[in-house]
Amino acid sequence: MTEEDTYLRAKLTEIKGSIDRMTDLLNRMIEIIAKITEVETATSDLALAVAANGEKIDEVMKKISNLSVAAPTGSTTPGGGLADKRAVSSLQAVLENLESQIREGVIASDLAVKISEAADTIEQRGGTGQLVLKMNRWGRILKTYGRVDTISPTDLRKLRDDLKEWHKEVGKLR
Question: What is the 3-state secondary structure (H, E, C) of the chain?
């Protein structure tokens, strides 16, 4: 073998090694593209499932809302029927949700909106007018704060005390 043959053989070996590495790289790229396609398909399927679940949740929420509004008028027995107990439980749930908002230190303007919504819900579900008035009063007080102000510790303490009173009033409905 001549020197040129040896040189050509070495170059061909280098080229073959490069082609092998390139083939491996292409195979890995194909695998990655296949995985990306699988993930995109799964994401699309998941998005469709989420949309379907969202529609179901909306339907359930409408039914619950209809039941909640109808519940207080369902029974008028002196001892308190099942519908009355459901209504009271519903009112307590509204107050507990509000209590968690207060505990988390929500911004005053956001809490004003939450209290107003809770007052409306309680009014719709047959809560006492006095309770709704007290809640609306707090909504007006909290609206006096700036858009991003936190509630002063004094007002927060008073609000928590009033919330305890609201729980007692709802408890009396039992």
Answer: CCHHHHHHHHHHHHHHHHHHHHHHHHHHHHHHHHHHHHHHHHHHHHHHHHHHHHHHHHHHHHHHHHHHHHHHHCCCCCCCCHHHHHHHHHHHHHHHHHHHHHHCCCCHHHHHHHHHHHHHHHHHCCCCHHHHHHHHHHHHHHHCCCCCCCCCHHHHHHHHHHHHHHHHHHHHCC
